[in-house]
């Protein structure tokens, strides 16, 4: 028995080079045709090129996920070209931000808007397209570990990722009568493995990274805070204990394998729930630190999907 998405059409929003591109490539490698959405033309082009050089078929679905006319426009284009949509992955979001004491109303509103309106509009219009055609599809909304527990320094992100988790449960109820499934997938700061992204980071003198921000200014997790005398540090700054029981939170390719399975017919009764690939990080008790990664057996080797030679 092999997992196959052969004959299915997928739409992935926010196909930037990290997680969105990893999911889009995986869906393609498992057999789906993939429509690639982003506000960035270069992100779409790079994702399509990555899919095509790995033997898949892809099309551009450009547009802002918060603009209803644009959303209906690119969904219409996919239906015109391929006649159906079986899989939607809501992935576009703004990362980063600031903590409660420093976040601005405008940045808070924009981050919540992209996530809430983007996930709602795409789920609504793809859901309608599926229901009208009696397609028993799968919709995956990308959440975050920050949607399930608290992190200092990212108040807007925490708000909208928490919202995604219950949006999915309610959307799953609305779409259950049609056989359409809606679930969250929770990434946990995966280690980028797109060869192009790694090469770009190396050129800029950066390491492989774990948490990237391309969304908006203000820094990554935990934006800068002021230097007034009353300020308190929001985070531990000493030597960090190992945090992940299996030693790694994996890569976008690990996410892609799991999302592809969640969109396959094997998962036909899985709806309104969450799938997480995190090496046990979320299950960990707060009072326990795992052993050093170097002392662990580690996971099985990664089943690689991108055949691009390292650059
Ligand atoms: N990177 C992580 O460590 C991490 C961890 C947990 C969850 N996540 C989630 O995974 C998803 C992808 O994360 P990433 O690290 O690849 O992010 P990223 O910032 O690299 O990519 C997001 C993409 O969304 C696009 N986008 C932003 N606003 C848009 C809009 N209005 N319309 C269309 N496209 C838009 C951006 O242009 C970008 O290409 C997000 O939902 C993020 O919250 C990421």
Mean pLDDT: 92
Instruction: Count all strands and give the number.
Output: 7
CATH H-level superfamily: NAD(P)-binding Rossmann-like Domain
Largest sheet: 7 strands, parallel
| Bound ions, cofactors and other small molecules, one mention each | nicotinamide-adenine-dinucleotide
Uncertain segments of ≥5 residues (pLDDT<50)? 211-220
- What number of structural domains do the residues give? 1
Q: In the CATH hierarchy, what is the class?
A: Alpha Beta
Brief account:
35% of the residues lie in helices and 9% in strands.
Question: How do the helices and strands line up, and which of them pair or pack?
Answer:
Elements: E1 9-12, H1 19-29, E2 33-36, H2 41-53, E3 58-60, H3 68-82, E4 87-90, H4 105-132, E5 138-142, H5 155-175, E6 181-186, H6 195-203, H7 252-262, E7 274-276
Parallel strand pairs: 1-2, 1-4, 2-3, 4-5, 5-6, 6-7
Helix pairs in contact: 1-7, 3-4, 4-5
Can you tell me about this structure?
By secondary structure, the chain is α/β, with parallel strands linked by helices. It has one domain (9-223, 236-295): NAD(P)-binding Rossmann-like Domain (Rossmann fold, 3-Layer(aba) Sandwich). The protein has seven helices and seven strands, in the order E-H-E-H-E-H-E-H-E-H-E-H-H-E. It has helices spanning 19-29, 41-53, 68-82, 105-132, 155-175, 195-203, 252-262; strands at 9-12, 33-36, 58-60, 87-90, 138-142, 181-186, 274-276. Strands 3-2-1-4-5-6-7 form a seven-stranded parallel β-sheet, sandwiched between helices. Strand 1, helix 1 and strand 2 (33-36) form a beta-alpha-beta unit. Helix 1 packs across helix 7. The radius of gyration is 19 Å and the shape is globular. Residues 211-220 have low confidence and may be disordered. Bound molecules: nicotinamide-adenine-dinucleotide (NAD). Nicotinamide-adenine-dinucleotide (NAD) binds at residues 13-14, 16, 18-20, 37-40, 43, 64-66, 91-95, 114, 118, 142, 144, 187, 189, 211-212, 214-215.
